[in-house]
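> @MW can you paste both from yesterday?
MW: sure, first one:
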Amino acid sequence: MDAETIVDTRALRDAFGCFATGITVVTTLSENGTPVGITANSFTSVSLDPPLLLWCLDRRSTTYGVFSSCKIFVITVLDAGATAVASRFAMKDGHTVGDQESVPTEMGPPTFPGALAVFECDMQARYDGGDHVVMLGLVRRFKSCAEAQRNAHGPLLYYRGRYRALASPTG
């Protein structure tokens, strides 16, 4: 595409929505130590050696200031029973994490009960991605929550603008 090509952003968003993605909540600590979180479906593994992952954040997000300067973050992979958690952190002003809903991690930013997996990361790099910033994390600690996986309904997915679950989870 050249610079003069005009894109129908609604149609493009609908096309992107045809790809089902998993749902995560990313948390960090503000400068004053307050835990902050945001729902993200733009999460992927990048490398095993070194262990790297990435996620993307809209520059217009109210959490942009906190995440653009943080040194650490935690990614929680949500199970299908966690739609309330995902919805809460997707709200425009719902980004402060309360003690009653979270679980502490060794690095500081919290995670959430029933997580399928948790990744504690150092911020490795940030890259320009148009109206988003690509956040690259170096995984320092991780946990694949075996008990949660046995009891889970499968991962929470996002497809065509709605949260979804697998029809029949695999064990």
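MW: second:
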Amino acid sequence: MIIKKLPMRSGVGVVILNSEDKVFVGKRKDNPINKWQMPQGGLDFDEDHLSAMKRELLEETSIKNIEILKEIEKFYEYELPKELVGIIWKGKYRGQKQKWFIVRFTGSESEINLKTKNPEFIEWKWITPDELPNVIVKFKKKMYLELLKDIKEVIG
């Protein structure tokens, strides 16, 4: 398989901030080592980025109550490590190109429920934005460092 010929998967990601400007992260069900990530996922056919973000957020966390603070203009990309190409996304993609949103969670923490129809996370927590690059899998670290700049612009 020639990896570079595979397309990038179109997706979205969402930075969820609580009232203390801490960021929501979840521990993935399929990677339960001590690695965390923010909610993200692919676009469904004919779906716009905003709709996809709200759907992914609901599917992964049950969160509905948000205020959109920023839609990041540029797209972020990451490539899968060679050993995961062919395993993740049934081998159709080499990585992901994502539109990210920064939102404020306006609900109560009792709204957060990971036991959804197709759960992706086994636990969740709030962390400071500066912790983000240290908790993510290595192949997404560069993207998270870039996202950190956007988060800091929003929270000041």
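> thanks! The chain has one domain: 3-155.
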